[in-house]
Amino acid sequence: MEMLQKLTLYDLLGYALPGCVFLFFYNGEKLGDLSQMEIGGVSILIAFGFLVGIVISELMRWVDSLIGRFWGKAQWRAIWNKYSLTCERMERALKKARILGENDSCADAADFSKYQAVIYADIQTDPKYTRIHNYASLVLLCKNMVLVTLFCMIHGMLKKSCGEALFGIAGLLCFGVRWQRISRKKMGYAICWFLEKYDGGETGEA
């Protein structure tokens, strides 16, 4: 019970839930009926699910990096257009934050994409960034569930189980779309916060 209390919602949603879903699809019969399990059994299941979730997350980190390499700038431009950002304002904010040198400049919106990690790290120093934490939890959950539902789809096809395969396909599409959508929303929110902090005024809706 003590272990369950120490787990945060971020851990449960982002790691343990996808890990447990994966374990049930992989060998659900041996895990037994969850409704019949005692608190000790549930704790063990969550612990194993959490470990499996970490492995899934590391695999998806590589996938995310690969996606960023090919479509990262296009996603950045989508955020840029949605929140009506300008190079001038972004440049001023980066210089005030001492991330960009006084003599440095960026001619195009895509040039600013390399500062995403720094901007996101900065917002986490603000104790009022609860919403970005919620976005991060949802991104992690959706991203990890993409791999889980992909496995379900492949597993269903190999077993010739139409129900499982269809569940996998539907889940893959749903979680994949939400992963990308919330990722853009999370980054848009971080950028708006960053600009308001260092350049003042208001930015587009986050």
Q: Can you walk through the features of this model?
A:
With 206 residues, this protein is mainly alpha-helical. Helices cover 77% and strands 0% of the residues. The protein has seven helices and no strands. Helix 2 crosses helix 3 and helix 3 crosses helix 7. The chain is elongated.
Share of helical residues:
over 70%
Residue fraction in strands:
under 5%
* Radius of gyration from CA coordinates: 20 Å
Count of extended strands: 0
How would you spell out the order of helices and strands? HHHHHHH
Please indicate the count of domains.
1
Structure characteristics:
about 210 residues; mainly alpha
Write the layout of secondary structure elements.
Elements (H helix, E strand, L loop, with lengths): L1 H5 L2 H23 L7 H44 L4 H10 L19 H8 L6 H30 L2 H38 L7
Helix pairs in contact: 2-3, 2-6, 3-6, 3-7, 4-7, 5-7, 6-7
In short:
The chain is mainly α and 206 residues long. Helices cover 77% and strands 0% of the residues. The two termini are 38 Å apart.
